[in-house]
Write a structure and sequence with these properties.
The chain starts with 7 loop residues before the first strand and ends with a strand. A hairpin with a 4-residue loop joins strand 3 (30-32) and strand 4. It has a domain at 8-18 and 47-121. The chain contains 1 helix and 12 strands; from the N terminus they run E-H-E-E-E-E-E-E-E-E-E-E-E. The chain is mainly beta and 125 residues long.
Length: 125
């Protein structure tokens, strides 16, 4: 399934992108307590543990300068059953639940200035 622009990305790709190392440039200097100076640095976000019920909020807006200016319209392909978060979690012993089934989605329809949300829940028979 694809959106109107034809671009599709997997939820796995979203988590991989989330964990990528980011270079902080001259606009985002970090204060180093050892050298007592502001320096360029890198940052990386990781998931240490995850809860039994996982709620994922996917960023749908991209920055252009200091303001949001465009909505990301890529279709995010989410598996309905058996999504394994094991490769993204550092403390697997502290996370008993690493495999998740989808039971609901909330989508935003519209632009940055207007629109509405539509919730969809999966029901078991």
């Amino acid at each position: 399934m694809k959106n109107s622009s034809g671009t599709t990305v997997s939820l796995r790709d979203c988590f991989s992108q989330y964990r990528n190392v980011e270079n902080l440039g001259s606009d985002d200097l970090w204060y180093c307590s050892k050298c007592k100076d502001h320096v360029e640095a890198t940052k990386q976000l990781d998931l240490y543990t995850i809860p039994p019920v996982l709620i994922i909020d996917v960023k749908r807006f991209k920055n252009q300068g200091i303001q949001y200016s465009d909505k990301v319209s890529d279709f995010v392909k989410v598996p309905t059953q058996g999504f394994d978060m094991g490769e993204f979690v550092l403390n697997k012993k502290g996370s008993e639940h690493l495999i998740y089934d989808l039971f609901g989605v909330v989508n935003h329809y519209g632009s940055l200035n207007y629109g509405h949300y539509k919730a969809i829940a999966l029901c078991e028979n």
